[in-house]
Amino acid sequence: MRLAPPHSFANRAPSLIPLPQPCICSPWCSVFIYPLQMRGPKPMPIGVCLLAFFYCITNGFVQGASLSIHNAYDDDWLLTPNFIVGAALFFYGFVENIRADQTLRNLRRPGETGYKIPRGGLFEYVSCANFFAEILEWLGFAIATSSHAGWSFFVFTVINLVPRGVSHHRWYLEKFKEDYPSYRRAVIPFLL
Fold it and tell me: Does any domain span residue 1?
């Protein structure tokens, strides 16, 4: 007796396994781990947390369905340039995102309340290194999967994070004035 339809994940080649595992980890870190590690007097509104949670659940379903049902990946998919370049970009973005979050988290020592200029890593090039790293992650995912769902999530990420990054950059410039590095861009090194 067959428990899954012939086109389902259960009947697919194992080549689907490598990329989705870290893709589960990245949103998990963003939604649960990072907010729990934040220091400071500002609590996160529960509505924002719930919206982020439900968005991640919905996006996870769409990405999972795309990878397991709607797209066919052969066993040699792991050796294609798309997968190799995309996976490398995804992992680089993932590591840099964690590093940027850690830099932001460690700007204040326990008990401090003031604002500081983030330094080091991608923060030497952009005000919002965490946003740039996340954009790289999902660009890598889109390239690696070559799926409509992957590309749509990448576009949504850019549309969501670039305006926020520009706003953050303006705030840094107004707050720190001449102390803020003039060569830094908002989100994309050397461009924007």
Answer: no
Domain count for the chain: 1
Q: Which of 34, 7, 20 is nearest to 97 (CA)?
A: 34
**Cβ–Cβ < 8 Å for 187, 161:** yes
pLDDT above 70 covers a percentage of the chain that reads: 77
Token pair for residue 192?
Answer: 């924007």
Q: Which of 164, 169, 159, 160 is nearest to 189 (CA)?
A: 169
Q: What residues of the chain score a pLDDT lower than 50? A: 1-17, 21
Q: Write the single-letter amino acid at 189.
A: P
Q: What residues contact 44, with CB distance under 8 A and at least 6 apart?
A: 35, 38
pTM score: 0.75
Range of the domain at 114: 18-179
